[in-house]
Design goal:
The complex is a heterodimer of chains A (393) and B (293).
Chain A lengths: L3 H23 L10 E8 L10 H15 L7 E8 L4 H15 L3 E3 L4 H13 L4 E2 L16 E2 L5 H15 L5 E6 L2 H16 L6 E5 L7 H9 L4 E5 L2 H13 L5 E4 L6 H7 L8 E4 L9 H13 L7 H20 L5 H8 L25 E8 L2 E4 L4 E2 L2
Parallel strand pairs in A: 1-2, 1-3, 3-4, 4-5, 6-7, 6-8, 8-9, 9-10
Antiparallel strand pairs in A: 10-11, 11-12, 11-13
Chain B lengths: L1 H32 L6 H18 L4 H24 L7 H23 L15 E4 L2 E4 H23 L1 H11 L1 H6 L4 H27 L7 H14 L4 H21 L5 H15 L14
Antiparallel strand pairs in B: 1-2
The chains are: A alpha/beta (393), B mainly alpha (293).
Chain lengths: 393, 293
């Protein structure tokens, strides 16, 4: 049997553990909240293939710094904990478990990537931890709705539907081709476009795909050219979109190009394509970089003060956008904050325009916060708004 | 129809030559030390970034920046060999390969930290958008350059290994390091030079590819895999083999993408290797070596 000293040490250990647990709980009424702080976690790729999107988390950080400088929310300052997952789902899981178990965050804001978010979606909901604004347009965040997850980013199916409808009805172009990345991101766009055209009893004239790491797209572009479309919709990485512009220019292929919000950073795209991005139509879910919207001016000021080295681009201020409803939720839930009260408060957000997005609405069975986008066009290297906010009918 | 087919073959050869260039760099190291260098791609990527800094940050003209990049890449290759591979005590070949994987990660992290993750365009004087139209077949200035550089480098290296004293010494070191050393060959210096040379060829490839693939720390991941496939196809030790392998790979990939499906275009490269290795285990252009024990 066990020796006596072993038993004794076991008792001491049990006592110690229960004591720490007791004190851990007794400080505040809810995990992640103290008298003067709220802890919020976020994962994003700061290294690796998708490091470009890491700017989202740094944007959220700047947003929180700005709010803290204004005095915080109901007397509490926001403490932001960023973890780098290098866009690898196993590392996301590890980071999230560490933030939940050791740091004890109240909830998560942003969280970049589809595959990475999918890896922790169920865990977070099971643990009843709120998560607001996944930085990805997958339609699976809000379908089916789960209590603790609030999606914001208009999903890719909706985006593609709006773009295709615009091409067909407003631009009156009937021959539409689609070039997509062969994964969830690209395929959701493809579904949206196909379904919309089915509604008009017609079809895409061509659809071609590319793998995320491919370097040669010449045969894809040639196939697109041979189908002779009026419009080509791109659902790609920035790099592939830029390569497409180059390859198309090379073989004298000049359709009207349309693309998703992921590629709506027109100045950047114009820069890396050396001017070939001119005339490309894209959709946006937030104000444009040089918008005169009062909040955008305020955010730009925060950027100049707290993160002057960051490029003032779409990904960076999207970090503000994805966290805005969470802050609104905190404001509505009041000083006496718990996770359950927070979720209830989030559900009272209806047609909310207090941020840089549009008509954000949540309800008991509604977790897709924003469903509208507007269209922009690259004119002389700058993004120009060419439509009002559009919504899927 | 014929024009289309020719166009696809030309585009295939163009991208295939890029694979071939990196494959050449891999083969050189493999020939002298039997090590597969997985850091090859990142070495080329870092050199390309160096060229980018010279060109766009310091506005140095290409004609000066390019030789400077070559010198940098030569030193970089030697440094990687000196800092990572040489310290290994009684290494096995597998151990060395794992070390190159480590070096790859270090260089990848370094590039991400130094130049950031945003995609950049590479300011090259040789343009991919300046094209020539030969009876309907379109070929860009850059494509022509890549062909030319690939073929001449292959020839130069082939002659170098066959006829120059240094080249023969490199081959000798590969076959039996101890014997080579007894014959008065400074095998360590040879190894160091091999890595420098290989890195230099990688840099040439990087600078030539960058206008097409654009510049970011991931630019070499796919080309490296394809180059590896080309080298295996050609037999891993054969320089003409690497070039031929690259060409075949590029063309088959593009034909497949055009006639069958774009969805499996990339996969087909690896299917080819499996088939070739089943039929000719030592690759297309290499002699089958049986080591006596």
């Amino acid at each position: 049997m066990f020796t006596k000293s072993f038993k004794n040490s076991l008792i001491v250990l049990t006592l110690l553990i229960s004591l720490t647990l007791f004190f851990g709980r007794s400080i505040a009424s809810e995990v992640g909240i103290s008298e003067d702080t709220i802890k919020i976690g976020q994962w994003s790729p700061q290294t690796g293939p998708a490091a470009l999107w890491g700017a989202v988390a740094r944007g959220t950080e700047t947003y929180f710094k700005m709010l803290n400088a204004e005095g915080g929310i109901h007397g509490r300052k926001l403490k932001h904990h960023i973890r780098d997952d290098a866009y690898q789902p196993p590392r996301t899981v590890a980071a999230v478990k560490e933030l939940v178990g050791r740091v004890e965050v109240f909830g998560f804001a942003g969280g970049v990537g589809t595959a990475t978010g999918m890896a922790v979606k169920r865990y977070l909901n099971d643990q009843k931890i709120p998560w607001v604004g996944p930085a990805s347009g997958s339609s699976r965040w809000a379908n089916p709705p789960t209590r603790y997850l609030f999606a914001l980013y208009p999903n890719y199916v909706d985006e593609a539907t709006i773009l295709t409808t615009y091409a067909y009805e407003t631009l009156k172009k009937k021959k539409i081709a689609f070039f997509y990345q062969n994964d969830d991101y690209g395929k959701e766009g493809l579904i949206g476009a196909k379904k919309t055209l089915e509604g008009y009893n017609t079809k895409l004239v061509q659809e071609v795909s590319v793998e995320p790491l491919d370097t040669d797209i010449s045969s894809q572009v040639l196939r697109l050219k041979m189908a002779n479309p009026d419009i080509v919709i791109l659902w790609l990485l920035p790099k592939h979109a830029a390569m497409t512009m180059g390859a198309a220019a090379k073989i004298g292929f000049k359709p009207t190009w349309m693309t998703t919000s992921t590629l709506s950073d027109a100045p950047m795209m114009n820069d890396i394509t050396e001017g070939l991005w001119e005339g490309v139509i894209f959709d946006c879910f937030a104000e444009l970089p040089d918008s005169k919207h009062p909040l955008m001016i305020k955010y730009k000021k925060a950027h100049d003060e707290f993160a002057p080295k960051e490029r003032w681009g779409m990904f960076f201020y999207a970090g503000f956008l994805f966290a805005e409803p969470m802050i609104e939720g905190f404001r509505r839930a009041g000083r006496d904050l718990t996770r359950e009260k927070f979720v209830d408060a989030m559900e009272t957000i209806k047609n909310w325009n207090g941020g840089i997005g549009h008509n954000i609405t949540f309800a008991t069975n509604q977790r897709q916060g924003q469903r509208s986008v507007f269209l922009g066009k690259c004119v002389k290297g700058k993004a120009v708004k060419i439509s009002d906010w559009l919504e899927v009918k | 129809m014929l024009t289309q087919l020719s166009q696809i073959i030309v585009s295939g050869l163009a991208i295939g030559s890029c694979y071939a260039l990196i494959a050449l760099a891999m083969v050189i190291i493999y020939k002298t030390s039997e090590v597969l260098n997985f850091a090859q791609g990142e070495m080329a990527m870092v050199s390309t970034f160096f060229a980018y800094s010279l060109l766009s940050t310091y506005n140095i003209p290409f004609i000066i920046a390019f030789p400077l990049t070559l010198v940098f890449s030569l030193l970089l290759g030697m440094l990687v060999e000196f800092a990572f591979l040489r310290p290994a005590k009684n290494p096995t070949v597998l151990g060395l390969i794992v070390i190159t994987l480590g070096a790859e990660m270090v260089l990848y992290g370094f590039a991400g930290w130094k130049w950031g993750a945003e995609t950049k365009s590479f300011p090259s004087p040789i343009l991919d958008t300046r094209v020539y139209n030969l009876k309907g077949i379109i070929i860009s200035q850059l494509n022509l350059w890549i062909f030319a550089v690939c073929i001449s480098l292959m020839l130069i290296l082939f002659l170098f290994f066959r006829y120059s004293k240094l080249g023969v010494a490199m081959k000798a070191t590969a076959q039996n390091q101890m014997a080579a050393r007894l014959m008065g060959i400074r095998s360590k210096r040879i190894l160091s030079f091999t890595w420098g040379l290989s890195s230099l060829i990688g840099a040439v490839a990087g600078v030539l590819i960058a206008p097409i693939t654009l510049l970011d720390p991931n630019m070499m991941i796919d080309p490296l895999l394809k180059a590896f496939a080309s080298a295996v196809l050609g037999g891993m030790t054969s320089l003409p083999g690497a070039a031929v392998g690259g060409g075949i790979l590029g063309v088959v990939e593009n034909l497949f993408g055009w006639y069958v499906s774009t969805e499996f275009k990339s996969v087909v490269a690896f299917a080819i290797i499996v088939i070739v290795l089943c039929i000719r285990p030592s690759g297309l252009l290499a002699r089958h070596y049986v080591k006596k024990v």
